[in-house]
Write a structure and sequence with these properties.
Blueprint: H1 2-11, H2 42-56, H3 66-72, H4 95-100, E1 111-113, E2 121-127, E3 142-151, E4 157-166, H5 174-180, E5 188-193, H6 195-198, E6 223-233, E7 235-238, E8 243-249, E9 266-275, E10 281-291, H7 300-303, E11 311-316, E12 338-348, E13 350-352, E14 361-367, E15 380-390, E16 398-399, E17 404-409, H8 417-425, H9 432-440, E18 449-455, H10 456-459, E19 465-476, E20 478-480, E21 489-494, E22 508-517, E23 523-534, H11 542-548, E24 556-561, E25 588-598, H12 608-627, H13 631-644, H14 648-660, H15 664-694, H16 698-711, H17 716-728, H18 732-745, H19 750-774
Antiparallel strand pairs: 1-2, 2-5, 3-4, 3-6, 5-6, 7-8, 8-11, 9-10, 9-12, 11-12, 13-14, 14-18, 15-16, 15-17, 15-19, 18-19, 20-21, 21-24, 22-23, 22-25, 24-25
Length: about 775
């Protein structure tokens, strides 16, 4: 069904206009329709209908945003957004509240309601806030405001304020608090305030001593305010209120600007400290380095949440500072709260990458790399390397050798001479540094520079700590070719550029190749000009055929494979003329370039005849693999054959169409196609069971046979193989039933008689076990 849907999509059937299904009115049983005036909805309904027509005709302007589209459809109000969560300022707001709090440059001059549809407080955007800033003020945040207010209709300003307020502390009137919470840093807006928005409050916007007076203004006056949010300082409440962190200077935008130091990070910052109650400065501004894993530090250094380049003021409770005892040497009294000003510099993340996460291998990133990829086992890595040793963890490092360029295969258990020499100089034997790199390199990006701090438990040797510093320059991918049971291995010599698509089964590929004997280097076969091959057709050796499924256009790979996957006995490949007979069983190396390819047709895109042909072809490929003993690959081919089989409904439609048209010959041919498809499906199910039995998948084998028996209830092979599966599963009564039925269907089968002998022996063992279990119960 999914394939038919995809076919409809690609054929353009889904591009037609969908039918409108009317919804019965009694679905809205709780609505009192007698109180609804349809004329109220005519204009909105017409707008929605017009917008839908434009959407279906593809006639919407490219710049139209979601808000404009929804507004055009009459969907602006009352759309609940609380379920979306996650976005800044979005949670708990409906669509109108979100819209008014996220106005953009294109909204300048637009007026929106801030009072939940009451019209008591409206906002007109004068200047949008910063494009890259999505924050609205929240409780405890500090807002630097400049505002002026006048009575609507041209009255002289009676209210003005310029300064800093803390949101939620009660200084702002309720309407202004609500208004400011819709603004972003740098925004300027005009607010019209009806008496209903003030709800009996005083006319002035900010409660303060010595400010302007509102005497003489009528309580029912409509007010107009110009408000500018000049600055906004975020205040985070951490550790259940024991730590307040106010951002004075935000972290600069850029790669990694959102990151926070990890649990073991080694941090560089500067800070200044004073006692909150007295203002006594107990520490002037000075650099500070610390490790977040150091338990002896004040707890505040582990709890703050600052980014690179950020400057913050911290209000620290005694529990996170010097506690009830204070710090007499610094002049900090007992139980004092502190005010710290911290400028966050940079940090090196420290990660425990040891196999058992026991701290024996700590990675420190000194310079970040590029991309998301990491080298894997077998990859050949090129890196620069230096090693330092320490007699103990606190002692000065001793460099054992100058920086060296080395090459190493991950997980290979062996190293090249330069790396072995460095390892011996460090007193770690031939493989000590190699063992460290086996842990470090799989965690690194290309061009990353990092240090691995190794304990004796990881690398051995006489030193308490060994630091292995590496800069990973590049790597070459070396990996097993899938579906070859790791018999064939490929080394990617030339990576594809900006290409992600790979050939699929039955893809037509344009390739060049040269195959040589791995030992002698003798050229066995080559194609210097591109040749066209169909994947899976056996036109090239099996190792190349399997590798094509993993290659990208433009990629060059070097394959190494045993004779069974190349020219050996039983490989199924016809050797070219003039092939040296003494190299038939040789391991080979093949350099292959994928020049281009055309993907094979997917089943959903095939005609009925093409599906039948593909079904038969996959079955024959499975039979060839089965004969070579490749049961897992054969099983996949049989499964693919059944997936290519025409749908029963499609076959029935073809038969019906031929019959209705009176074409007896076409109807007969359609019936023959249906019978042929069922026979191929039956054969594949029985052969799948044979593969599954050899792979030890007895439950799956029994299911395959049951599906075959649904098609042909008397199939001797299906009964026999289900009997074998049930015998292996110790389902003796079911096995007996199947094997006896198989013997009746094929009395001359030696295999069935042998299985019945096995069944008899299994029944005897079961009786013995039963007597042993219950023999002592009865006397």
């Amino acid at each position: 069904a999914w394939e038919r849907q995809r076919g409809a999509w690609h054929s353009g059937a889904w591009h037609s206009r969908p039918a409108v299904v009317p919804m019965p009115l009694d679905n809205f049983s709780k609505v009192d329709f007698s109180k609804i005036d349809p004329s109220e909805y005519e204009e909105e309904g017409a707008a929605a209908k017009a917008m839908q027509e434009r959407m279906l005709d593809g006639d919407l302007p490219e710049h139209m945003g979601m808000e404009e589209m929804m507004a055009g459809m009459g969907m602006g109000g009352g759309m609940g957004m609380g379920g979306m969560g996650g976005g800044a300022g979005l949670e708990g707001r409906d669509w109108d509240e979100y819209r008014v709090a996220s106005m953009e440059p294109g909204d300048v001059g637009l007026t929106l309601d801030c009072s939940g549809g009451k019209g008591a407080l409206t906002k007109t955007l004068r200047r949008a806030g910063a494009r890259d800033d999505f924050e609205n003020p929240s409780d405890r945040w500090e807002a630097v405001l400049r505002l002026s207010g006048a009575v609507a209709g041209g009255g002289a300003p009676f209210d003005s304020f310029e300064g800093c307020v803390t949101m939620g502390e009660g200084r702002l009137s309720a309407w202004l608090d609500k208004a400011v919470r819709t603004m972003k840093r740098g925004e300027a807006s005009a607010f019209t305030v009806l008496p209903a928005a003030r709800d009996g409050e005083a006319l002035l916007s900010v409660r303060r001593e010595g400010g302007p007076s509102a005497e003489g203004l009528p309580a029912e006056a409509v007010l107009e305010y110009e408000v500018e949010l000049r600055e906004l300082r975020e205040v985070q409440v951490l550790c259940d209120g024991l730590l307040l962190q106010k951002t004075l200077v935000r972290a600069p935008k850029g790669p990694g600007s959102w990151e926070l130091p990890g649990e073991r990070a080694e941090v560089r910052c500067s800070w200044r400290g004073e006692v909150e109650a007295t203002g006594f400065v107990f520490r002037g501004e000075a650099p500070f380095r610390y490790s977040r894993a150091d338990a002896s530090l004040l707890r505040v250094w582990r709890e703050l949440k600052m980014k690179r380049g950020e400057v913050a003021e911290l209000k620290v409770a005694p529990e996170l500072a010097y506690g009830p005892g204070g710090e007499p040497e610094l002049g900090v009294p007992p139980g004092a709260s502190l005010l710290l000003r911290v400028a966050m510099g940079d940090w090196n993340d420290v990660e425990d990458v040891s196999p058992g996460r026991d701290g024996s291998a700590l990675k420190v990133v000194e310079s970040r790399g590029e991309g998301w990829q990491r080298p894997m086992q077998r990859y050949v890595c090129t890196l620069s390397l230096e090693v330092e040793v320490r007699a103990c963890a606190e002692s000065a490092p001793e460099k054992v050798a100058p920086e060296a360029e080395v090459t190493m295969a991950l997980g290979g258990g062996s190293v090249e001479a330069p790396l072995e020499e460095v390892s011996r100089l460090a007193g770690l034997g031939a493989w000590g540094v190699g063992a460290a790199l086996d842990v470090l390199l799989p965690t690194m990006q290309r061009r990353e520079r990092a240090v691995l701090r190794c304990s004796q438990a990881l690398v051995g040797g006489p030193h308490e700590r060994v630091d292995v510093r590496a800069t990973l320059s590049s790597w070459v991918r070396v990996e097993p070719v899938p579906h070859t049971a790791e018999a064939a291995v490929r080394t990617v010599l030339v990576e594809a550029e900006q290409e992600h698509e790979r050939p699929n089964e039955d893809a037509r590929c344009e390739i060049t190749f040269a195959v040589r004997a791995a030992g002698s280097g003798a050229l066995l076969e080559e194609a210097t000009e591109p040749v066209s091959v169909v994947q899976g057709d056996g036109a090239v050796i099996r190792a190349i055929d399997a590798a094509l499924l993993e290659m990208k256009r433009g990629e060059v790979a070097l394959l190494r494979a045993p004779a069974a996957w190349c020219y050996g006995e039983g490989s199924g490949y016809t050797r070219p003329a003039g092939f040296p007979a003494d190299e038939a069983e040789a391991e080979v190396e093949a350099e292959v370039r994928l020049v281009g390819f055309e993907r094979g047709k997917e089943a959903w895109a095939m005609s009925l005849a093409e599906r039948l042909a593909s079904q038969l072809k996959k079955k024959e490929q499975g039979n060839a693999l089965f004969r070579r003993g490749e049961f897992e690959r054969a099983l996949r081919r049989y499964e693919a054959s059944n997936s290519r089989a025409p749908e029963a409904a499609d076959l029935a439609k073809a038969i019906e169409a031929a019959s209705c048209g009176g074409d007896e010959e076409a109807a007969s041919a359609a019936n023959e196609r249906k019978a042929a498809a069922e026979q191929v499906r039956l054969a594949c199910l029985v052969n799948m069971a044979a593969c599954q039995l050899r792979l030890g998948e007895h439950g799956a084998a029994a299911k395959s046979c049951s599906a075959a028996l649904d098609i042909a209830p008397g199939s001797a092979k299906a009964l026999f193989r289900r009997g074998q599966a049930r015998l292996a599963l110790a389902e003796l009564s079911g096995a007996k039933e199947d094997l006896l039925a198989a013997a009746k269907a094929d009395p001359k089968s030696r295999e069935v008689r042998a299985a019945l002998t096995q069944l008899k022996a299994a029944q005897g063992r079961a009786r013995e076990e039963e007597r042993g279990a219950f023999g002592g119960i009865f006397t």
